[in-house]
Each structure stands twice: as C-alpha cells, then as structure tokens.
Design goal:
The chain is 28% helix and 25% strand. It is built from nine helices and 14 strands. Helix 4 crosses helix 5 and helix 6 packs across helix 9. Bound molecules: hypoxanthine (HPA). The site of hypoxanthine has 13 residues, from strand 10, strand 13 and strand 14.
C-alpha cells in the first residue's frame, strides 16, 4: 500500500490543474504487479477535465492490462480524496468488489482504505463489477502472472488434517487465498486457505489447502471461485478428500473410502441464485463421481495393497456433530459416511465441467456407534494418522488419473 500511495503522490506533482488548483494523483496495481499512474488533466473548458483515476486507467489499458487489483488516490487537501461518481463507474469496469481503494490526503498523511464495494451503490450492478457478468478468471491470471508455465491437470482439495500431502509436492509454489482476488477466507484451525501448485508423481497438480465450510457462515456459492480457479488454471478433474464419520461399524477409523455418490442434507446448494444463458443451472447429478476415475482408484488401491472401501457420503451443515437418531435416519437413507463438506465442491465442479473423484478418511464411528463423544481435535488427529495411506494412494493413482483425462480431452 505504501508504494502505491507514494507513486500516486509523486505523480500528483505532474497534474495539470491550473483552474481548480487541486492536483490529484492515482496509482493502480494490476495482477502482474505493474503500477500504472495518472494525474488529473484540466483544460480551459474546466470543469470538463480528466480525473487522475481516468488517466491511470488509460495508462493501464494502453499497457495491455485490464484488471485493477488495488488503487490509490491522493488529493491536495487535508482530507482523503475519494474517486468521483464517474470514476467509480470507470473503476467498476476493471475492478472486483474486493478491490481495495486507498484514499489519501496530500502527501498520504491521512489514508482511508475500503473495499470498492463500499464506494459503489448496488444500482451500479456490483455483483458483476469487473467481471463482465461472466466470471473473468482473475485469480487464475494472478497465479499465471507469477507462474506462466503452470498447467495443473488435476485439482486436489485437501481436507481436515490432510494438508501434509502438499508438502510432498516437487517444486511447490504457494499462494494464500488472501492474495488472490475473489477467493474466500477460511477460518477453521487445520483449514488454512492456500493454493499449492507443484508435481506429485510427475503429474502437475493444484492443491487447495483448507476449505470453506458452510458452518463458518459462508454462503454455499462462496465455493464457486475456488473450483473455478482450478478449472481456469487448466485442471480437468477434481479429487476431493475429507475426514468423515462412518455409519458402518465394519468400516472404522483409519479406513479410506471412495465416494460413490452423495446425499445433500446441507439445505443449500452452491449454484443458488446463478443464472446461465439458458436460465438456472439445472446440472445433471446422476453421475457426480466419475466412474472411470473411480475404477482407476480401485485398481491402484488393489495394486498397492490398500483396502479401499466404497460408500455414499452424506453432508450435514454442522458445526455440531449428529445425534444418534440422525445417524440412524441417515443409515436408513443409504448413507455410509457423514461429514460437513465435499458436496458443494462436487456440485460446483460438475457445473464447471470438471470430472470428480472423492476419498474420505474415516476418523470415527458416527454418533451413537462411537464408544466416546466426538471432537474436532480427534478428527484432525485421526485424519493425520491415515493421511499417509491416502497420500500413497493419490501418488500411485495420479499418473493413471492424468492419463484418463488426456484420453478424454
Ligand atoms: N460427523 C460429521 N462430520 C465429521 C464426522 C462426523 O462424525 N467425523 C469427521 N467429520
């Protein structure tokens, strides 16, 4: 922020403002890290001059860039200088609602920083600000600007206690979700929000470390930009992992279960409110978990001597664990596993055209079947104990999974 304010303040000295005598400087940082600056330019027909923000936007577009990650505006008065209404609309063309706007007084002595959404009224069409209404691949562009060669084929969502898998990646490159525009914040211990790119068993992968749970208070649609990022980076498939409770006494803690299908008891859906050009997204979910990828996982598990179970995963909203009566009801519905994640990502992935595989680590027998009360600490601990087995399966299966994708591309 300091660098951006300094650049805006410096260019203010070049302002052509003989009529208002109010020099303004603006500086824009884009996903490539470049800073574009501009000052106000008045003319004898004052007040029809050009604002500093407009000049900076002109410089950015002329340089071939169209994304504002962060913008600073420095005025000549004692109070922070806010973009005018016209410039807010101009910024909206190239910014996201989360884009930070720094408004400063002369010399940057007083600074107010707000997300752009707070400057722009709803009437301006905030939901699609800067996205042209089509979900422009901002976060992926940001990743590409740092790693132009990155072409991950498979996305991995690493659930509770499973983040260790990312440490096995060769040439790992890490981004925090906080530095990628449009991505949500995860708040649960053991669910740090990071994207790690690298190679596992010779296959380029992109791992989402940590995840968004609806029990954190997020809307289900918060998941979409994460899955979209993996798709935009080039992933053709998404492997979802999680920690789950087992409804089958014969499949106890430490076992790994391949997800065959799911039951959505979240009471919500990540696609709510979305409209495609054909209307609401009536996505077909008759084969969410890809049979071909599933067969590969079964075959590889058998090859490496891992007893891989298969079952139906039921998602609850949480954050409470279930009651024994709920577990009995879920068993009657056909569930083998219960957890608080995975289903929104799987639906988002199908909507976005990714093939899906799912693997659960059983951390406990579900409520009423377990000898002791359930806890998150126990979930994390049991997941990290079985994580090596899951990592072994993934590593062994990735080349075949990637080959299946190449075959279908
Ligand atoms: N219930 C819900 N979520 C879970 C469980 C459970 O028993 N174990 C791990 N995640």
């Amino acid at each position: 922020m300091k660098e951006l304010l300094k650049a805006a303040d410096a260019v203010r000295a070049r302002a052509w403002a003989p009529y208002s005598r109010f020099a303004v400087g603006a500086a824009i940082r884009t996903p490539s890290g470049t800073v574009h600056v501009g000052c106000n330019v008045e003319n004898a027909a004052y007040p029809q001059g050009q604002c500093a923000e407009a000049t900076a936007i002109g410089a950015m577009v002329s340089a071939g860039e169209t994304r504002i990650l962060e913008i600073a505006v420095v005025g000549s008065g004692p109070d922070p200088c806010a973009p005018c209404g016209g410039c807010r609309q101009r910024i909206a063309e190239f910014a996201l609602p989360e884009t930070v706007v720094h408004m400063a007084s002369a010399g940057g002595r007083t600074v107010e920083s707000v997300p752009f959404r707070e400057l722009l009224p709803h009437a301006f069409g905030l939901r699609t600000a800067g996205e042209g209404g089509t979900g422009r691949p901002w976060a992926a562009e940001m990743v590409r600007s740092r790693l132009p060669q990155a072409r991950p084929r498979i996305g991995l969502v690493l659930g509770s206690g499973l983040g260790g898998i990312a440490t096995a990646l060769e040439g790992a490159q890490t981004f925090s979700w906080a530095e990628l525009p449009g991505l949500p914040r995860s708040t649960v211990p053991g669910h740090a929000g990071r994207l790690v790119l690298g190679r596992l068993a010779g296959v380029e992968v992109a791992c989402l470390l940590g995840r968004v749970h609806l029990y954190e208070g997020h809307a289900a649609s918060t998941i979409l930009p994460l899955v979209q990022l993996l798709r935009d980076l080039g992933c053709g498939a998404l492997v979802l992992t999680n920690a789950a409770g087992s409804l089958r006494p014969d499949v106890g803690p430490g076992r790994i279960v391949r997800i065959l299908d799911h039951i959505n008891m979240l009471g919500t859906n990540p696609l709510i409110g979305l409209r495609t050009e054909h209307g609401p997204p009536f996505v077909d979910l008759s084969a969410v978990y890809d049979p071909e990828l599933g067969t590969i996982l079964d075959r590889v598990a058998a090859r490496i001597g891992l007893g891989l179970e298969a079952g139906v995963y039921l998602a609850t909203l949480g954050p409470c664990f279930e009651t024994p009566a709920e577990i009995r009801a879920f068993r009657a519905l056909g569930a083998d596993l219960v957890g608080m994640s995975t289903v929104p990502e799987a639906i988002a992935a199908r909507f976005l055209g990714l093939r899906v595989a799912g693997l659960s680590i059983v951390t406990n027998l579900a409520a009423g079947l377990a000898p002791a009360p359930l806890s998150h600490a126990q979930t994390l601990e049991a997941a990290s104990r079985a994580a090596d087995a899951l990592a072994g399966l993934l590593e062994a299966a990735l080349p075949d999974l990637a080959a299946a994708l190449a075959g279908s591309a």
